[in-house]
Specification:
Blueprint (H helix, E strand, L loop, with lengths): L8 H18 L7 H23 L16 H21 L19 H22 L15 H11 L7 E6 H14 L18 H9 L12 H11 L2 E6 L14 E3 L6 E3 L29 H14 L15 H20 L8 H19 L4 H59 L4 H9 L5 H15 L3 H10 L5 H11 L3 E5 H6 L3 E4 L5 H4 L2 E8 L2 E8 L2 E8 L1 H7 L7 E4 L5 E4 H14 L3
Antiparallel strand pairs: 1-2, 3-4, 5-7, 6-11, 7-8, 8-9, 10-11
Helix pairs in contact: 1-3, 1-4, 2-3, 5-12, 6-8, 9-11, 10-11, 15-16
Length: 606
């Protein structure tokens, strides 16, 4: 069997439209390629200078004074970038269906039929080239589709990525975000989607909730962003948005709806709520497994039993066969079974083998009856040979798969050990830095060397300043610790007090939080005179903050700011507001809240 050319169409579209076309078009005005643009300009200037000098100093051109070439590097650079941009649009046109899909301002502009043929030929050429590169060689004998390692590699990458300490940032242009929003807007209309398509669910899909916020005052069937008013200006402006991709994406989402499963279409691990409707039946979910079981081929139970019997009789060693079976027909096989039964019976009677071999005698008898049932169905010996050959081939491929799984497990273990060592080393380094900056103590060896060279160390100034700050303006935690430590002589008890006291805590009135821009909205049913009396107490605990809202001594509401909230406030929720307390009780600005919590933690430190 041969691969169809259409199987590589998605890869070809990514190569032409996103990689080649996307980069070349973004190179013209995107901020992230500013350094590359400078290098191109420099290279063009150098090349233009060499060509101009070569022309002007050519002896054949000395008599042609009017033809001396002047410096025109700016126009040459402008033309080079024009050609780069045109080439990028040409590659992107090879992916789109028509000229109008490119977003040209002039809708009446006609495309040259020759250009249509060229881009069609380019797409076909790249498609065929990718197909040639991906399709395995027939000499490898790994099946028509080669050795597909995609699912195993994706499963291994799911675990490996959690041990990555690299900060991954994806840069997406405003134009692409608007186009993506329009695409999702169109396909979130449930009545226009096919049954087998992935749908945006109204109950738990966060992306759909964002789209519904845009839906206000807009026709539900019209995409929110138009080419004339939004997409084209975004393309001209060339602004990009940096999105931080968290490697530990399973840290907070561990419920059933967020449980990772294998997508039936892409084989990639995805959250359960993003899977197709056909996968939402718990019995049909492709759960993540370290090792997949061996899937046996469909066939008659008689073939399965007969193959297992032949394997047990002959043994697993090629050089040391237990009972060789000769013949080419079912009759020969039954005859051989009878001879083996006689030999085993004789060995059991004479004590050369254990009594447990009587079970083999029963299986041989059942094997003869199985052959009779196969012959009654008029099935020839070729069917059995084909079944055994296919079974051997499946087991061989499964052994290759197990070796790949073993290699993946070794890779995961190696990455984990490196991650563990790196974290331990970083912890020790940061711990030393923390202790050194907390006390600003300088070893005597460094002091002696500094005095010999008449150098004043900055740490000495910092130590004096920290002591003065601690004496004149201590933090609340330092003040409480000094009161508790007064008259205490046991150093061990002093360290235990540090652990208890060093838990940041702060109380603030509502008007203070509003003036700092932290509180954006309070529930409308809370009266103004009560709002003036509301006091918020922030208490640090377990990498988060417990917040209690009091009106004088009465506890009005209590909620918690989890570590998940703090992490999200550093990324996607940085410029948004989050509701706390339930029932629209309170809405806080994420950026201001994050700064407030950092201030409370620093103020409460020792």
């Amino acid at each position: 069997a041969q691969w169809e050319k259409g199987i590589c169409t998605p890869i070809t579209s990514v190569v032409l439209g996103s990689i080649l076309g996307g980069i070349l078009c973004a190179l013209h005005n995107s901020n992230q390629f500013s350094l590359i643009r400078l290098k191109i300009k420099q290279a063009v200037k150098e090349r233009e200078f060499k060509l101009r000098n070569s022309w002007n100093h050519n002896p054949h051109n000395k008599d042609r004074e009017d033809d001396e070439v002047d410096d025109d590097s700016e126009n040459v650079i402008r033309r080079v970038f024009f050609n780069i941009n045109a080439l990028g649009h040409f590659f992107r046109r090879a992916v789109t269906k028509s000229h109008s899909d490119m977003g040209n301002e002039n809708a009446e502009e006609k495309e040259d039929p020759m250009v249509r043929d060229v881009v069609s030929g380019l797409h076909a050429f790249v498609n065929e080239t990718v197909l040639t590169m991906l399709q395995p060689s027939a000499a490898r004998k790994k099946g028509p589709y080669g050795e597909d390692q995609t699912e195993t590699q994706l499963a291994a990458d799911l675990y490996v990525s959690h041990f990555s300490l690299r900060r991954t940032v994806v840069s997406v242009s405003t134009e692409d975000l608007l186009e993506l929003t329009n695409l999702l807007w169109i396909y979130m209309q449930q009545d226009t989607m096919e049954e087998a398509s992935v749908k945006l669910r109204k109950d738990n899909d966060r992306l759909l909730q964002l789209l519904q916020h845009m839906k206000k005052n807009i026709d539900s069937k019209t995409p929110p962003w138009t080419k004339e008013r939004h997409i084209w200006p975004a393309r001209v402006h060339g602004e990009c948005h940096n999105l931080t991709m968290r490697t530990r994406f399973l840290e907070f989402h561990r419920t059933e709806e967020n449980e990772p499963v294998f997508c039936e279409g892409s084989l990639a691990p995805i959250p359960c709520f993003m899977a197709k409707d056909s996968q939402h039946d718990r019995s049909k979910l492709s759960k993540l497994r370290v090792v997949k079981p061996l899937f046996t081929q469909e066939g008659s139970n008689a073939y399965v039993e007969l193959e297992q019997l032949l394997q047990d009789i002959s043994g697993s060693s090629k050089d040391d066969l237990k009972h060789p079976i000769e013949g080419s027909s079912y009759t020969d096989m039954q005859t051989q079974f009878v001879e083996i039964q006689k030999q085993i019976s004789s060995d059991v009677e004479e004590g050369r083998v254990a009594q447990s071999m009587n079970e083999m005698l029963q299986r041989l008898e059942e094997g003869k009856r199985t052959i009779d049932r196969i012959r009654e169905r008029s099935e020839d010996e070729q069917r059995l040979r084909e079944y055994i050959d296919k079974s051997l081939e499946d087991r061989f491929e499964y052994s290759v798969y197990l070796k790949l799984v073993k290699k993946s497990i070794e890779e995961i273990t190696e990455v984990y050990e490196k991650y563990k060592g790196h974290v331990e080393k970083s912890y020790m380094t940061l711990n030393k830095i923390h202790k050194a900056t907390e006390t600003c103590e300088i070893p005597d060896e460094i002091k002696i060397v500094a005095e010999s060279k008449s150098e004043r160390l900055t740490f000495e100034k910092a130590k004096k300043k920290k002591l003065r700050q601690r004496r004149m303006n201590p933090t609340p935690a330092q003040r409480v610790l000094e009161q508790l430590q007064s008259g205490m002589t046991d150093a061990r008890q002093s360290e235990e007090l540090k652990d208890k006291v060093g838990m940041p805590s702060r109380s603030l009135m509502l008007r203070e939080l509003e003036s700092k821009g932290v509180v954006v909205h309070v529930h409308d049913k809370i009266q103004q005179d009560l709002q003036r009396k509301m006091c918020f107490t922030f208490q640090y605990k377990d990498e988060g903050f417990n917040v209690q809202v009091f009106i004088k001594t009465t506890l009005l509401k209590e909620f918690r700011i989890h570590r998940e909230h703090i992490v999200s406030m550093q990324a996607g929720h940085k410029v948004t507001d989050i509701e706390f307390g339930g029932e629209d009780f309170l809405r806080l600005n994420c950026f201001r809240l994050q700064r407030l919590l950092a201030w409370i933690y620093a103020e409460g430190a020792l």
